[in-house]
Write a structure and sequence with these properties.
There is one protein chain. The protein has about 375 residues and is of the alpha/beta class. It folds into two domains: about 1-90, no CATH class; about 105-365, NAD(P)-binding Rossmann-like Domain (Rossmann fold, 3-Layer(aba) Sandwich). It is built from twelve helices and eleven strands. A seven-stranded parallel beta sheet has the order 7-6-5-8-9-10-11, sandwiched between helices. The protein has a four-stranded mixed beta sheet with strand order 1-4-3-2. Helix 8 (about 255-275) links the parallel strand 9 (about 240-245) and strand 10 (about 280-290). Helix 1 crosses helix 7 (about 200-235), helix 4 (about 115-125) crosses helix 12 (about 340-350) and helix 10 (about 305-310) crosses helix 11 (about 320-330). The longest helix has about 30 residues, at about 200-235. It starts with a helix and ends in an 8-residue tail after the last strand. The model has no long low-confidence stretch (mean pLDDT about 95).
Length: about 375
């Protein structure tokens, strides 16, 4: 039943979005008629319920039903009952003018660091956020934080291991069942273990590649399947796949080849996916931040990059973490590390525009300049 709804929901959501993007998620229980919805205890008016036969769920028939609906109604149906399939609750944001109003955005690795910061800032701008993270403790914490802000958009935590295709597909399926589709896929999850050729074990190299490189492929593969359905149902609309890459994807990094190699590969995937998907109005771009010194990736006292690079001897003459940090800050013309706000501005640009795709957008304070 849910598998059938996963292909129907994106079509219904886009057809219902004539006057602004809506979300459309399944109702719990077995209601599949207007009568069932009215008797379920949900506050509903029969005049706001659209009924659909299970044989009428092809795009052409649904289009006719929605055309007829909007001929006599100003607003989309609040509920859609599909016989022998289930019912859908439709929710329209009150602020339809915001760039992200009604949009559904997945952020992997959203439990902490850049990911959590990106999720929070996009949530504040009206997006519904899927907090995807392998760590359920930090993931649920981010979900709770976002939902405590009292906004009408929602956050949902989905435990996800981006190195496992079944886990990524489940993330996409849960997103569709809860919100009706995917508009923005931000592939942010990543790990970094520093080390040169002598220190790097094959198992660690493989793990980093599985998460940093192959994980992006899984996210793009399964998200784009839903996005194609959406853009076909609503020509003229766009979706976005964005990889949070790194300045290490633009320039090699001494004793950091496993990370840099995966990020270079991510830009190759970005450019290749962009060529394949732009005809479906799906843009694919990479954001390449500089070093986020305040985040746990760098500042974790046990496993952060400052301590890793100090132990690996990556910075000649460095004896303390402060020495390592001073070295890296000194390489940035802007005199500081990259911040979440810097990255989000680049993300919003990528989403807002409708022409550029396949780009690697540096956000490095001038440390890396394209030529």
């Amino acid at each position: 039943m849910n598998n059938e709804l996963i292909t129907i929901l994106p079509v219904i959501r886009m057809l219902a979005s004539v006057k602004g993007l809506v979300t459309a998620g399944i109702l719990p229980g077995n209601s599949d008629t207007a009568k069932h919805i009215l008797n379920s205890g949900i506050s509903a008016d029969k005049n706001t319920i659209m009924e659909v036969q299970s044989s009428d769920t092809d795009k052409t028939t649904l289009q006719k039903k929605f055309d007829n609906w909007f001929h006599t109604h100003n607003d989309p149906p609040a509920f859609i009952a599909i016989k022998n399939t289930g019912s859908i609750a439709v929710s329209a944001p009150s602020d339809k003018d915001n760039l992200l109003s009604g949009k559904v955005c997945i952020v992997t690795g959203a439990g902490q660091g850049f990911g959590a910061g990106i999720a929070e800032m996009l949530f504040q701008k009206g997006a519904n956020i899927i907090v995807a993270d392998i760590n359920d403790v930090v993931g649920k914490k981010t979900e709770k934080l976002l939902n405590s802000k009292g906004l009408e958009n929602k956050a949902l935590f989905v435990q996800t291991d981006v190195s496992k295709p079944a886990s990524v597909q489940d993330m996409i399926n849960q997103t569709v069942l809860q919100f009706g589709g995917v508009d923005i896929m931000i592939s942010n999850a990543g790990i970094l273990h520093a080390g040169g050729l002598d220190e790097m074990s094959p198992d660690t190299f493989r793990l980093m590649t599985d998460i940093n490189y192959t994980g992006f492929f899984y996210c793009a593969k399964y998200a784009s399947q839903i996005m194609k359905i959406q853009t076909a149902a609503a020509p003229g609309t766009f979706c976005d796949i964005i990889q949070i890459n790194s300045k290490s994807g633009l320039q090699g990094s001494k004793k950091n080849f496993a990370y840099a190699g995966g990020k270079f590969g991510g830009i190759g995937l970005t450019q290749s996916f962009a060529q394949e998907l732009m005809s479906f109005n799906i843009k694919v771009n990479a954001i390449c931040p500089g070093n986020y010194f305040e985040g746990p990736l760098w500042s974790d006292p046990e496993n952060g990059l400052f301590i890793q690079y100090l132990k690996a001897g990556k910075i000649p003459g460095a004896r303390t973490i402060k020495d390592v940090r001073n070295h890296y800050e000194g390489q940035v013309p802007a005199g500081r590390g990259c911040r979440v706000n810097d990255v989000v501005k680049a993300i919003l640009y990528a989403i807002d525009q409708e022409y550029e795709t396949g780009q690697a957008i540096p956000v490095t304070g001038g440390q890396i300049m394209l030529h």
